[in-house]
From TrEMBL, chain A:
GO terms for molecular function: GTPase activator activity. GO terms for cellular component: cytoplasm. SUPFAM superfamilies: Ypt/Rab-GAP domain of gyp1p. The keyword Translocase does not apply. Residues 349-573 form the Rab-GAP TBC domain. This is GTPase-activating protein GYP7. Keywords: GTPase activation. Gene3D superfamilies: 2.30.29.230, putative rabgap domain of human tbc1 domain family member 14 like domains (1.10.8.270), Ypt/Rab-GAP domain of gyp1p, domain 3 (1.10.472.80). It comes from the Eukaryota. InterPro entries: Rab-GAP-TBC_dom, Rab-GAP_TBC_sf, SGSM1/2_RBD. PANTHER family: SMALL G PROTEIN SIGNALING MODULATOR 2-RELATED, TBC1 DOMAIN FAMILY MEMBER GTPASE-ACTIVATING PROTEIN.
TrEMBL record, chain B:
This is Rab family GTPase. It comes from Starmerella bacillaris. Belongs to the small GTPase superfamily. Rab family. PROSITE patterns: RAB, RAS, RHO. Pfam families: Ras. GO terms for molecular function: GTP binding; GTPase activity.
Amino acid sequence: MSDSVELVWSRSAVYIHPTKNNKDNIAGYLSLVRPPDGEILISWVPESLIKLSKQDYESYVQVDLSLDGEVTQKNQVFVSKPPSMSVGSLARSSHAFSIKLSDLYSMQMREPSLGWWYGSILLFTKQAETLPVLFFHDDESEVEKRRTKTMQKKRDDWGGEFFMEKLENYVDIRPSTLEKGVYLINPSAQDTLAFAPPVTTSNEVSGPNSAKAATWGDLKWNIFEKLAQVTRYSRKASQSMFDRTPAPLRSMLNIPEVEQLGQDFDSARVFLAEWALGIVQDQEDFQRKNININLNTYDSHFDDFSIVAQSIERRNPVTLEEWESFFDENDGRLTVTAEEVKERIFHGGLEPQVRPKAWLFLLNVYPWDTSAVERASIIAEKRNEYYRLKRKWWENIDMQENDSFWKDQKNRIEKDVLRTDRNIPLFEQSETPHPDPDSRLAQSGANPHLEQMRDMLITYNEYNENLGYVQGMSDLLSPLYVVLQDDALAFAAFCGFMERMERNFMRSQEGMRDQLSTLGHLTNFMLPKLYSHLAKADSIHFFFFFRMILVWFKREFEWDDVLRLWEVLWTNYYSSQFHLFIALAILDLNKAYIIERLHYFDEILKFINELSMTLDLDTVLTRAEELFTKFKLALDLVNWQNNQSEDTKSQTEVTEDLRMLLSREIVDQREQARPPGATGG
Amino acid sequence: MPPKKSMLKVIILGDSGVGKTSLMQQFVNKKFFSQYKATIGADFLTKELTLDNRKVVLQIWDTAGQERFQSLGVAFYRGADCCVLMYDVTNHKSFENLETWHDEFLLQANPLDPENFPFTVIGNKIDVEEGKRQVSAQKAQRWCQEKGNFPYFETSAKEATGVDQAFDVTARNALQQDDAEGLDQEYPDGVDFSQYEQEPSGCAC
């Protein structure tokens, strides 16, 4: 029995991805086994190998499916000893491995993003061996499926976490101070030092450099410059430098999967960059000799890590069939998490037939965790409410005749309805004469949809007394009405939309001012060269983005693209203010032209205005996501650097409005009560 | 020395829906479209004119008519050489608001000599049937005289009535203002504004 080991814990559907091609993926079991000598091993064995022994296979399945995948003292299960890393060619070619827990140095957990990529774990040994990245295909795991069914599964649960929980029974796991997701295993003081940059070095870096870096530009430059250097090191670093690299890092650099998979590399890069910050001082001579950095082309450095973008791709829109598969066919409740649905919509948008259903969720008409019956009752309530609100002004003849504010607002609304999206078939001119020739809407013939638009906007004017109707709102309502084709539902959805858009319409214009100012900070942070050009052109008020922000790019994209863009933004997937990253992406895509050709505010305004209907939405969305990823990365680096430095003076200040861009909660800015005598203007 | 080419900046202000965009489109592109979308933010068109053998480029700024949107508009008020105040002859309220627009402009643009800054006043939509008119020409003229002898024009952007005359006088006053301020900046060579002139979307009804 010397060749058998006790199977302590086991997990199916853990894959390795030897190539980028899905068909090369290899399914296997990740397990913890106890050999007779007692020291636990982590092992991964391909399913095909396990199946060679029927008895082994049954044991793995049994342990995987047993409560929490663990067996009790009483019913110990034994299997054949898994091949160790360095034994025999069979193990090599099958990728199987097993390592002693005492050889484990650290691990990195990468959370899944459902429908996008699987969660994965990287294991680093003290000997810097190259272990395959382990991908948890939870959707194929029987245990996970059971947990989902029995509602035990929480939103962020994934296989990797259960593995870590089990592992914690046997080793001390401590999160690395450097990077979220990296954990040290049984760390010694020395280990910690090897991972974290030596204190003296870090002081040298942040001390003199930060003193100079009084402005954002300088400091950012430092960080990005170092990032760029790391990119080069990872490819062509000299052996001498490699020798000084901590072992786990060396192995990471060598893992081909790390280079192959864009998203893997992304997180690896954060890690590498942080490490680079620590050793940069030592490496200065090396850099001077080996790397030709042009200090004046900051933006080109930035572009160096466009590799991040390689993993960012748009997906197909959600079809009706797929949408329906998200819900239980009996009670109509979601069987996946709202988060998963939002992620899917963020990356692909919706097919037109899905919109009338999905938009009501996205616009908070009803919550995600409702049953079909509950939703039907919410709709009935909303319908009643709309007609009640509408009747209130409809029947108030006195107000209609004598309230000059009301009359002004009605005029304003009618004027705007008559010039909102009239190219859309629903709003076209009607040949039938209007029943009331005195109505302003009579000039468009009898078109009931224009009447509905007017009534919804007048009702909103009454419903949100403080704000009332303001120009631009008709642009926001019309797509909702066209998609939902139901005035009461469109009104409810519009109220949901206005929760976040109210700030755009305030009398003081405070909300617009804030957003333009944040866009300015963001541009300065992300595209400093362009920002300084705009400053010279007297344009850093960013007024030329007023229209785009006020009505969420309604005038910049074709109708179908507007619908797609809005549903993407409504998910709040990365940020409730992702629209500012859309604006940033538009700037980024055009920065070369702007810098080269446009030198005055009027030129820039004209140029930006005329981008209207020329922008490709997928290009913009992809770039926006890429910029968000870079933005988050840069903030992480700044945070980390600030944490390293105890001297608050040398810390980099990031304005609160930029930090807020990571929030997914909508910015709640409300209009104050309308002062007496104030017009709607 | 060849005669210099001046860039004259003209701002059109007035209530929402009085026809600012239509007037500008009619003057520059000779087109009328009854359903221009409400202007959001600001935009401008340019047109080259010859005034007494002098070539000028008129840069005409069209702005949103809802008052609250003006508070962010300082950026484009600056350096204006003339301001066109516009109302709709079928809408008395839009006439009453000329006063506000006038004051708002002086406040925001902050010209060197506000007393003598050139304004033009335009009453638009004179193509409508007589019964719908709410402001008489006499009443408007009287207001213009009182405010500072502002030239007054009545136009129909729809039928292209009075539009060229109104802009001709506006341009001359702007040129005078430009010369008087002595700050006229020659339009930089090498920037060809014709590249920006774009056909308006929609049909020419």
